[in-house]
Design goal:
The chain is α+β, with helices and mostly antiparallel strands and 349 residues long. The protein has helices at residues 7-11, 109-117, 134-137, 140-147, 181-186, 265-276, 299-309, 322-331, and strands spanning 33-40, 54-55, 62-65, 73-76, 85-92, 95-101, 127-128, 153-156, 164-166, 174-175, 190-193, 198-200, 205-207, 225-228, 233-235, 245-249, 253-258, 281-287, 313-317, 344-348.
Length: 349
């Protein structure tokens, strides 16, 4: 069902040199445009304004009964929670296809927000889990109710089923909810387990699979993050199941969508560049996991590396952290854009 945390598993993703082109390059077909809607993020700001590439939902996407008002109802915003879910829609040769990357924390947030935005989740053609943490997979319960017995495919790394906990010194360890393969299959999902890169949507969406760890500063999770190896709890710094989505916008470059970015934002981008042979980074959207004291030393080299890549759009959400947000906004003032539940970002050829 998953790896056992053996030295072989860990060794496969330790930082190492990876010069030159990929041994097995990916022919990622360019698209005319990609739209990324953050269905669930840590914040919802109804006062954010849009521009030529960003659409904001505002207050008036939906209304609910509220008898204390004279007309008996009030506008409602969107759910924000410590989780992430993104609807990725690609446009190519007159066709439009949508995938869901992650499903948020709570069972109903992604369904609630989709309904308020007018997004038909039954039209989604597949789900990709960035990794097995519960704040990215919690919405699968509500999604299963919405889909019924439809055999919706889910692309998932084999280690997404790993038992994990947070064991902070001098505190009782907190077990993290463990994703159940049997439960998902019982709800009708069709599981596709892969460590290797996958091409979806007629070859124009790349799931990175296990990410090469090549930088010397992205060291992963602190010692409190542990995994069960079958005989003991051990430090799980690498989160080997971490993966991202990649789209190549024709004539512009790569758009990378992360869940948490546990593999490291720079590692993920470099991995995508190596796999595809496309050197340009056009957009980076999602969680970059740079929040908290353990990750703050990683902020300066990460920001420097991303600045050197010159992306047109950076939407750093979820677990990025406020210090990293400020650093990215200062270093990339024309590219950085605040994330918010319900926002749609469009990048076109």
């Amino acid at each position: 069902m998953c790896g056992d945390g053996s030295p072989t598993d860990v060794g496969q993703a330790m930082p190492r040199a990876a010069p030159g082109a990929a041994v097995d390059p990916i022919a990622l077909e360019p698209v005319d445009a990609v739209e990324v809607t953050t269905l669930v993020d840590n914040v919802f700001d109804a006062l954010l304004t849009g521009d030529e590439r960003t659409r904001r939902p505002g207050w008036f996407t939906a209304r609910t009964a509220a008898p204390q008002f004279e007309d008996g109802e009030t506008p409602v915003g969107l759910v924000a929670e410590h989780g992430f879910a993104a609807l990725v829609t690609v446009h190519r040769a007159g066709t439009t296809t949508s995938l869901l990357l992650d499903t948020g924390l709570s069972p109903d947030a992604v369904v609630t927000n989709a309904d308020r935005l007018g997004v038909d989740l039954t039209a989604v053609q597949g789900i990709v889990l960035s990794h097995g943490h519960f704040d990215h997979a919690g919405g699968l319960a509500g999604l299963a109710r919405r889909l019924g017995r439809r055999r919706m495919p889910i692309v998932v790394h084999p280690r997404a089923w790993t038992r994990r906990r947070l064991a902070v010194p001098h505190q009782e360890p907190h077990l993290l909810p463990t994703l159940s393969q049997r439960a998902l299959e019982g709800e009708g999902f069709a599981l596709v387990e892969r460590r290797e890169p996958s091409l979806l949507v007629d070859g124009c969406v790349l799931v990175t699979g296990e990410v090469d760890r090549t930088t010397d500063f992205e060291r992963g999770m602190p010692p409190a993050h542990q995994a069960w190896t079958g005989g003991a709890w051990e430090h799980d710094p690498l989160v080997l199941d971490d993966q991202a989505l990649v789209v190549h916008v024709r004539g512009r470059g790569l758009v990378v969508v992360t869940g948490c970015g546990h593999a490291g934002a720079v590692n993920i981008v470099r991995h995508a560049q190596r796999l595809t042979g496309v050197p340009e980074l056009h957009g980076l959207i999602g969680g970059l996991h740079l929040g908290g004291p353990a990750f703050e030393p990683v902020i300066p080299p990460t920001v420097a590396a991303l600045t050197g890549l010159g992306p047109a759009l950076v939407v750093s959400g979820h677990c990025t952290g406020w210090r990293a947000q400020h650093a990215l906004a200062a270093a990339l003032p024309d590219a950085w854009t605040p994330g918010s539940s319900g926002s749609t970002f469009r990048l076109a050829a």
